[in-house]
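This section describes the prediction task in plain terms. A model, or a person checking by hand, is given the sequence of a single protein chain and must write out its three-dimensional structure as a string of tokens. No templates, partner chains or ligands are provided. The sample shown here is typical of the held-out split.
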Amino acid sequence: MPPLSLYQRALGPAYQRLAPALARFHRLSGPHRLSGQVQVEAPATWPGRVLAWALGAPQSAAQGAITFELDARPEVELWTRRFPAQTMQSTLHEAAGRVVEHLGAARLTFVLHEAEGRLVMQLQQLHFCGIPCPAWLRPQVVAEETGVGDALHFCVRATVPGVGRVVSYRGHLLVPPGATVAGALA
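The expected answer:
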């Protein structure tokens, strides 16, 4: 049996309660290219644009097609999001039941929760250029995914105190029903 995916390991038994398209997406293994639609909001301020640039995140408003390239290996996932006007790449791995994402100059640590079939990612820690971010300066992050039919719907928004919106995008990806997936939970 193939190894569990990093999201299966991080969520544990709660993984089984995710909406089917969402669970299928987070069980994918190997290379995949998914497509969908996205709406991106520009950072709210000049400092927000600088932070978005440091993260490799979109710096201008756009709406249109998104291509999502996933290379899911047992210990690491490589994500490439091709927005209409920007490409954003990150690397994710699981550590102590948390998902750690390396995005540009940032290392973000998320605690995952399942809520009525949705996946909710709560930012627990942030390191920027290797320096821990104090709690009072840590961004407010909304990162949720839902599944409807064969579509994974996503909503990501990060605001920084005193800076405003840095990252904001929402949309969906189509998850093929017959895609190669990692093992099931026992």
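For orientation: The helical segments are 6-11, 20-25, 46-55.
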